[in-house]
Write a structure and sequence with these properties.
Distance between the termini: 85 Å
Order of helices and strands: HHHHEEEEEEEE
CATH architecture of the largest domain: Sandwich
Helix content: 25-40%
Largest sheet: 5 strands, antiparallel
CATH class of the largest domain: Mainly Beta
CATH topology of the largest domain: Immunoglobulin-like
Strand content: 15-25%
Number of helices: 4
Mean pLDDT: 89
Radius of gyration: 36 Å
Shape: rod-shaped
Number of domains: 2
Oligomer: single chain
CATH superfamily of the largest domain: Immunoglobulins
Amino acid sequence: MADYIPSSDAGVRSFATNYSSIITAGPVPLGLTVLQGTTLAGKVSAYDAALTASSDPSTRGPAAVLLKQEKKRDLIAYMRLLARIIQANPAVTNDQRFSLGLPIHHLPSPIPAPGEAPDLDVKSVSGRTILCRIHRASSTRRGKPPGCAGANVYSHVGATPPASLNDWTLEGHASRTSNIEVVLPPGVPGGSTVWLCANWYNPRGQAGPTSAPVSTNIPGGVTSMPPVPGEEPLAEAA
């Protein structure tokens, strides 16, 4: 990125003269003090005099050039110091920055919360581990929507899905959209109906609308074997 202060001697003088005149006319609205404006004006004057002396054939010489370079470095350093103060002042407008010759930093627009709900598919069930994938509602648009960082995945064990998301269990945050594992706790009985849903979230964690719930069943417990013909069934232990 190009420096906002010119590199040439004449460019520094032109920039500093304009910079100083604006600051001297009204330092307080820029977040500066009158003393800082006066100090800047003095440094501009000293550099201008040193530049003139180093350019005039009658006074030009190694000492004059060295003094000019010292005054130039001192002036530029002080202008940058004041610029940092001005740029940090939230009351300073872009018009004021433009008139001073300072950079105008355009802040990116905040990413809104997702506006669409995902679709969730159950791929497989193994024991209490459910493997699922999340995708955009349209089959022609794969992956996450623009501006989305990932998806929240929720579960609920029961005959019907709750109407409020507060009654669901947050299983975690998925940054990828496929092969998402939902591992149910051991206390969930075999054969239970499990509901799943999800919603996209942006980098600030703001969530969008929730997907339609989908259900699956985890495998049931061990079933008793039927008795072999001609044999008595085993008696249960007392």
